[in-house]
Fold each of these.
Amino acid sequence: MSPRKPAQPKMGDAVRLSADGLAKVLGDLEARLLTAVWQFDEPVTARTVHEMVIVEHEVALLTVVTVLNKLVEKQILTRRKLHGLLHYEAAMAPGDFHDFVSRRMVEGVIDFAPERLAACFVDVLAERDPAQLDRLARLVDEARRRRG
């Protein structure tokens, strides 16, 4: 019997280009809560997450619980009962989540104008981060070598 593949997050198709970071693909509060959960190395209660988030963002505990449960439904968080309290934990490490979302975004964009995507991508990298352009060149070379 083959091992079960971990469940993939259920992400919508909407991307908010004007938002920052995770809020591009999640709601603002979802992004704040997921970021807070990632800061712990163990499952965490909604109250603990609330206490962390309320420092910078006024929000009710019940709202935090509701949004954490929505992240569970989306398979971005997991939830289990420990010591009589519900605890939440990220289903994926931050890097794995970013890889998953980035791939989904590229797969969605490539259908829009595949003949222009590579050129636009290179132009934007050259403008914003030339070091990443060098990294892209190395990744392309590695992919070509693997293909033979």
Amino acid sequence: MTRGKTLPTVGSFEVIETGKNMNERHRNEQGLGWIITSFFVVGDLAGGGIVALPAAIVQTNFWPGLIMNILMALSMTYTAHMLGLSWTILQRRWPEYREHCRKPYPEMGGRAMGNTVKHIVSVCIDITQFGIAVVYLILSAKNISDFIDAFFKIEISFCYVILIVGICLLPVTFLKSPQDFWWAIMLAMITTTLALILVMIGAVMDYSTCAPEIAFNDKVVPANYFLALGTILFSYGGHAAFPTILHDMRKPYHFTRSSVLAFAIVFLLYTPVCILAYLTYGNSLRESILNSVQNTALQQGANFLITLHCILTLTIVFNPLNQEAEEVFNVPHHFCWQRVLVRTGMMMTVVFVAESLPSFGPLLGLVGSSTLTLSSLIFPCLFYLYLTVGDQIAEEKGKKTPDEIPSFVEVLVRSPRRRLIICSLIVIFGLIGGIVATYTSIKELATTRFTEPCYIKPFLSSTGSKPIEGYLNCCGAWQNITRQGDISDCNPYMDFYSEK
């Protein structure tokens, strides 16, 4: 998953000039076809969110979660479609966007709604990148800790593994950003797909053992629904990277085709795993589906693939973060001590936040319900409405690049009713759902799912801190059923969904 990152371009394109008429569209001499683009979008979307998505379905008592999953896939496809149309407007009206554009999403916001919004979008994407880096660092450390426990029977807190992963990744971040990272995005798609296949095989094998002892949630806990919403938003929200992918297409106006195919693939990857996990494990599922797979080889195979995906994502996501920091501190573009200092500081900051909030699930939901909601649901709707109305006004006035931004009233009056209604519903849902889900995630981090910071644990008594969790969550109503027969490896019973 590469959502929120500034992705490198595939290469330099020879530009074919197009007319300025509203019906004419820009295309490049070379670039990505729409089918290949759809695979890049899948690689951008699929990733760490899938390990928590089955628990989100359990949190919502299945049918509501399944409906939320469908609605989110449709909404995200529609907003991706609007981003594609918005970018074609930018390339037609402002020729400079046909060449290399380092920050296409903020530029889109600036042309649509002004420089203030441009800076807001830029900050939003930076926060998203930082949040994803923290989430994936925690998930990588947790998976590595589980791997060591499963095969070597050595219990090591992932708090220490966070430090080790951070130290190992630091030298890689000193390198200048590679020109071509598309192989990493494709590899991310492949690793996630293989991991999902292994999880499904494991769930099928576990069904005969776990399903007869299964238990489901009886209570309706409102907080669970908003926590699930944050997870679903994280799993489908990769839109911050879409303008960069758009820029590298041969025919950017075909991005709608890519979006429909990509989100259909992602939906078909996610949904069977969620349904099968629900029917097999019920509410014994916790924040990661991986720990519920009873076959150690399959579990750790999927674990390895997801960890590989996370490490790849971390190596990519740190580059734009570091470049932003270097711009702030005016660091030279060549390798120097200032670069080492700034990039070390960035890694230390990410590690510190990960050590301070070592709770993967709620933190993932917090990122999904806050900045990812803005970049994936709200911004695309607003930008498209403003750009299309601005395009109409420019055409009427005979200006190709007017300085004025359409007013809110003009957008309401001039936008087609159906488009305005759909966008309004998405924006209202994004605002209300995002705000409540963000509040719920923060409350969950601070109360129910509170985990003491790693740097405080050594000073707590053994009775005052939580025990190290193992690699296996056993199934059944009391979480004490396993195909392995030996329940000594099972994690202690946990009321994960606040049912008691």
Amino acid sequence: MQVHLHVLLHGLWGNTKHFESAARVFNAKHGTRDDESQNRVQLLIVEANEGTKTYDGIEWGAERAAKEIMEAARRIEEKDHHTIDKFSITGYSLGGLYARYVIAILHASDFFANVQPMNFVTIATPHIGIPRTDRSLFSRLAKVVGSHLLGNTGQQLYGIDNWAGTGRAWLEVASDRSCVFWNALNAFHRIDIYANAINDRTVPYVSGAFEFEDPFTKVNIEKAEVEFEAGYEPILKSWCESKVPRKLSLSQRFQAWKPLPYLGPFRQWNFPYNLILMVMLPMILSVLLFLLPMTFLLNTRASRSRVLTLQKLMNEEETYSTRMKLLTQVEQAAGNVVGHTEPAQATSDKGLSLSQRQMIKNLNQLSNLHKHLVWIHPVRNSHAIIICREESQFPDHSLGEGVLRHWVDHFAL
């Protein structure tokens, strides 16, 4: 039997449960198979990077994921006596960056010699890292905290790492058209990019959709007229800002003034719990202000310890990470690296670094590229909702189910 292997990769601090809704929707369409059929799609939700292992850096997360994929492939072929003839991969958030690294490992390992690369999908993935599109104090603090308290991954997301001694950040190298990362991605039959157009407080639009500008920052969202893909709301088909002011009744005006719903753990509690929360809130906040930095520091320290162990292993035997770094160094030494930009710190007038602008340019030259913008409103943060990440805990996450159906229906078999 021919097997189409489809790999799912979660994001930062993630776990396999984050794909429960996605797997349910996918299996409802592609999971059932006719015993007489010679083809089937098999899902593999990678387990190797759960929790704070995502601090270790994109290369080590991809290393673990690639090993799990290779083991699954051997099991399918040797134990189940099936043949993998097609391969697809879907990454959510940071998982999309893992996916870009994983396929380069597979490409360099000749995995695709007899396997057809079919679907490459990312959902709310920071393809150019976390850009500083504003100069606010919060943005500066976020960069300091994120780049130092999220381990190697934080440095890579903020583009301050030195990949394989090249003097360039990994994100910049991975977007270079002459490198294995870009070429492995360009080989896929379909490349589908799902990005939140609005309300994503985690991954900005310009990074999720790798675009030079965010047109939605200039739009009054409340006055925008949007049209969705038929049957796939909230996938955006078209949008414009209404030129004609709408006449609202008094009740509609009051409704418009209502605060956005808070999708976090503290909802509107009934008496007396709301009173208890109000009294205890100062103490809770004080504890959190102490515990959160300590937790980040301890997790970062644990990550550094893991990375040191992995680097020791790398010195003793060849790992995928060793192979990829050597390959990158060879490509650069041979003069094959084109489009080299100024250092990542240099910025343009749009808040994007010059290297980020080059990343955007290169990524938009990928073949078979399809972008899908998502309009989820009114919510405070659409990042988790886009994949119904915790639908069982937060019913509002079901607002993203149209995205999952679109992903499934456009999946090339």
Amino acid sequence: MVERLTFSLPSDYNGPVTQAKLKAEKKTRKSKPPGIVGLRSPRKLILFGWYGGKFSHLDWLLPLLPPCHHYCEPFAGSAAVLLNRLPSAIETYNDLDGEIVNFFRVLRDNGDELTRALGLTPFSREEFLIACKLDPTASPVERARRFYVRARQVRTGLAQTASIGRWANCKNTSRAGMSGVISRWLGGVERLPEIVERLIRVQIENRPAIDVIRLYDSPETLFYCDPPYVHATRGDAKAYRHEMTDEQHRELAETLNSVRGRVAFSNYDCPLLDELYPAPTWRKHKSPPRTNHATKGKRVEVLWTK
């Protein structure tokens, strides 16, 4: 008796290989761009523009930040790097600006309430004027709502520059069948739940950067430091709510040179920083040139690592 052999095709079987299929597969491989090392998702997250923020440098910057057990940003600002980085087991956001820290805390802890409030907020000059008047008696959720209105409805696109007279009204530019500024406003609010999900695992501090560095220092910690640019390297002398003098940069460098953890430090190149973060202890990485909106010229970011 002859035994009959049977077999089944794999579930992903797509017919015999042909020259046409091989050409199509080769074309597909070529069309897919290589992934960015360290990037959480191809769809990058951004909350708002921030002077000195690194959103436009993520493709260059993220591969230079190695995986770690504890990822800490002592000068986190808009958190553009943290939000788009692959999560670490422990993550710490810190900033000295109480308004932005309140925004991130409310977004993490009361995200649904804040998102609903912003969804009901019109793109309005009057709303922007109200938001520009800081009210310390307002609830944390209302303070966060007003902060986001200032950050997303300002003409310059940079949260720190929000002031009366800088509302981002639109005359002719349209996007997605509506005013361009309103389209961007609605799109930003729509993505907040995704950012809330990313922030759930992050601990949030509002302390001087050096205090945070000393508190969380360990061999398993990576500090990504993005402090205010050295004054001699930039066009805007009052871009930050909390500025840093050269002496404060020296104090920061003294701390960073003595930590047990790993450090990545962002700024523009200058003799002062070469003195504070010398080779061969520190390695310099230079970004591709990008247009700087303040000086209108091409600038190169530098990352010092150790």
